[in-house]
Structure formats: structure tokens, C-alpha cells
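Quick bug: F420-0--gamma-glutamyl ligase output formatted oddly.
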Amino acid sequence: MFSRDKMTYDALPLPDRFDYDDPEMCARAEAFLAHMQKRHSIRAFSDRPVPKAVIEAAIRTAGSAPSGANHQPWFFAAISNPALKAQIRTEAEEEEKKFYSGGAPDAWIKALEPIGTDADKPHLTVAPWLIVVFAQRWGTFEDGTRYKNYYVPESVNIATGFLLASLHMAGLSTLTHTPNPMKFLNAALGRPDSEKPSMIIAVGHPAKDATVPAVAKMKKPLEGISAFFD
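Here's what came back:
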């Protein structure tokens, strides 16, 4: 973080250092891969409660992500209040109905068919927690003057990845949801115009009859997502 009256560079010795040998590095990377391959987006949640402390720890993890100029341009609104979740569902479904009834191009609707989605979003009220991710387009000093945030989408996306990984490590399931437009979330949650909603994440335990689309297990192979220049 920074303040207007202190803009100096102070170097600290690296506080945490890992010195694994090559076999242990490979083993740790493969173990993390195996665990993350068990992460699934679900649409059928149980109403089993999730402790607030788990959500707090996951958000702290997200807050440890790197960001442009270390401005940390994100805000996470965690909601368990049933009435507020119901309000968000109602407003989100209004936007989704427009999307599925002609607001989206035919090709987009066709691409969603294997996923099995529609305008009905019961997960927004059944899941015990919703986390709304906001991107802070600018910040303000104590006197109200604005300062610019840098690499905001990139920074928020990295932090959101940290958040999803942390929730998965805790044994929870998630679903990312992006109704468009999402401005209603600012009003519902009292967030300023400087913040743009990025997504809603439903968080909880899967219902006993939870399923995933078969297509979701079809991941591109390594050669389809990377190139190595040795």
C-alpha cells in the first residue's frame, strides 16, 4: 500500500524462502495439480452451513495476490443473509431472462447448450454464501482526491483465482456467475461507483444429487494450452 506523503522504496530481506530439490518440486507441483483437477463448478448446492471463518481465510488468501503497484484494487462482499441473497437472485434472474430470451447472440446460446444453463439461478439462494467480487477502478485519498489503480482486471483476476483455489482447498464447491449488467450489485451492497462488479461466486457444499456437465471434464491437453521454448 502507499500514501500520498510516503512514496519511497524500502527493501526488506525475502521473508520466506523455499529450497526444495528438483524431485520435491515436481512432487509438489503434481500433488497440487491432482488436487485442483478435483475442482468442479456445480449448480446444485446443499444448504449445509459453512463457517464464516472459512470464508474469511479464503478472502485473506485472495488479498495476498500480486497487484499492479500493490494497490490491491479489489473488494469482496461475502453474503449469507437470506433476504439479501434472495434480492440478488431476483435481480440477477431478471438480467438472465433478457439474456436467454434474445439478448445474447444465437452462437453464444448454442455454446452454452452442453453446460445446461438457463435463466433460473437457485444456487444464489441455496448456497450458504455468495461472494461478490468488485474491481476498484480508482482509489481515493483521505481528502477525497482520486488516484489511479493499475492493471485492475489482471490484478482482480489473479486474486479471484487465489480465492477459488483457497475455497477448493477447504473442501468447498463454487460456481462463478456473471449476470450482465451487474450494476444492481453496487446498489444492493452499498458499494461506490469506483467499484465495478466482476462476478458472483456461490460457495458451499454440493447437494447429494449434484452433477457436472460431461463436457466440463474435457480439458485441453498440455500441447493445446502451452508451448515450450527450451
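Actually, after a second look the formatting is fine. The first strand starts at residue 74 and ends at 79. Closing.
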